[in-house]
């Protein structure tokens, strides 16, 4: 049982990381909330209003954006979790596999999403590498880029984030999982039983955490959806940026309202993740701190 | 549930160097054999090979007449308890013990009921609902033992299971192991580097030196009648008198000392446990005389080192019986405790 003072020290040690984060995020969010409610207009006197939000609520663009953003985030997160968790669990069975996967994942994580998006575009566009390699006419190739199912966008996020998931899960499993796996084997558990009863429960907390971070990230990410998506419906960040750069300055209120809604959704998803983690921690008997 | 374990000609090389070089070992059903050896002698490797966690370069492992060589660990019926308890952190104490029953396909309620019985066996019925992280080291090892027993193993493998525990707790665990053996009579192969633990816990002690079993037998026999000088030294034997055997007696710088059993003539080293040597005044009936060079405490006892014509000899005496350093004393080597081992050189020549 950790004593009170070490946890207080942990909090103090966290401050250098927490202060800049809170300062930057807090400032940006405050400005966004103030501007979206007319309290900090670009020109003129402050005039509290919910016009921006009301205009959005009546607009299909927000609902469609919401739908598509949540859809992309959910699909990308599920794919990234399946691929990342799967490869991490597979890789741990051999030492060489683990090393190779770690190298591959470590090489993938620092690639900027925009570069990844461009690469996926070159690969999956109807005139792209895949179409050429398969010798499919551009007209016959499925619309993966800019198509109705956002395949290229989801593929890019899933590719990058699966590397992140794999790294997080591998790091969590590294501590003693091999010993527990051996213990389970000598107690009569076969490979599948060991996967189901030992490896997966041990990997679950880290996978949940990585999944929550991935979901929130994809929800708020702009570049990939802008490059590989279609012009309508627009995911929330793309919508916000278009409204922000509109010639009509009044649309800035709406742009910031979209940004505030997106942020609220991302925060809600992180809170849900934290709640899920707390439940897993209770179920696994590990303390949260 | 218990079965005879037989290990034959086990060889394991790491990077070309043989760590195990033909290990032969048998544990009769329901008995406990302690595999005793210095650090790095490959004791734990023997257990891992028996458990199927490692693959031998040569040799076979049989349990209850069944050839285990090549089987995966989960199909061997060889539960293992290591130095660390390796409890599953995501399961309660009860579910940890129920784990082998659950993977064997028992229904949850049945598995838990049986597991509760095993927990009671190790005296931890009260802690069933606790998480492993909240247990003390001794409690964790008890749970690990209960979990291993719940698997109804043909052979129970113990890899220095008590070496990380405090001495008091360790003694408690030795008593617990004795109780468990009386209750369920598992076949136990215990690996330890602790000579005392080996003698306390096991029926038979097997000494692993240089990749082979140097000697196996009851602990007392190993101490008083070691097969080689190496075994004698590993078991802490301090007294070695080089000489030769002639006509039923050992002849050395100490003179002619009669032997209790017939020994073939030729060069040989006389060994007598320091615990058996008595300190007397110089002269009267002493087998050796000399000057005390050093007295070192050994718990309640003291070790007295004496310089004699045949080199340094030691005796262990009880509290208050140690002579002062520098005094002249005599040493009595009781006839029944005399034993001759081959000279190391002669041994090497034989091969």
Structural class of chain B: alpha+beta
Number of domains of chain A: 1
Please count the helical segments of chain B.
Answer: 9
Query: Termini distance of chain A?
Result: 10 Å
Task: List segments of chain B where confidence is low: pLDDT < 50 over at least 5 consecutive residues.
Answer: 347-351
InterPro entries (chain A): MetI-like, MetI-like_sf
GO cellular component, one term (chain A): plasma membrane
Protein name (chain A): Putative spermidine/putrescine transport system permease protein
Organism (chain A): Geodermatophilus obscurus
How would you concisely characterize the structure shown here?
The complex is a heterodimer of chains A (289) and B (351). Chain A is mainly α.
Outline the fold blueprint.
The complex is a heterodimer of chains A (289) and B (351).
Chain A lengths: L3 H33 L14 H7 L2 H32 L3 H14 L4 H12 L4 H5 L17 H24 L2 H10 L4 H30 L2 H6 L7 H9 L6 H34 L5
Helix pairs in contact in A: 1-12, 2-12, 3-4, 3-7, 3-9, 4-7, 5-7, 7-9, 8-9, 9-12, 11-12
Chain B lengths: L4 E10 L2 E11 L4 E5 L6 H9 L6 E6 L2 E2 L10 E4 L11 H11 L4 H14 L15 H14 L4 E5 L7 H18 L2 E6 L2 H7 L2 E6 L2 E6 L1 H6 L4 H6 L5 E7 L2 E4 L2 E4 L7 E6 L6 E3 L7 E11 L2 E8 L2 E7 L10 E5 L6 E3 L2 H7 L1
Parallel strand pairs in B: 3-8, 3-9, 6-7, 7-8
Antiparallel strand pairs in B: 1-2, 1-4, 4-5, 9-10, 11-12, 11-14, 12-13, 14-20, 15-19, 16-17, 16-19, 17-18
Helix pairs in contact in B: 2-3, 2-4, 3-4
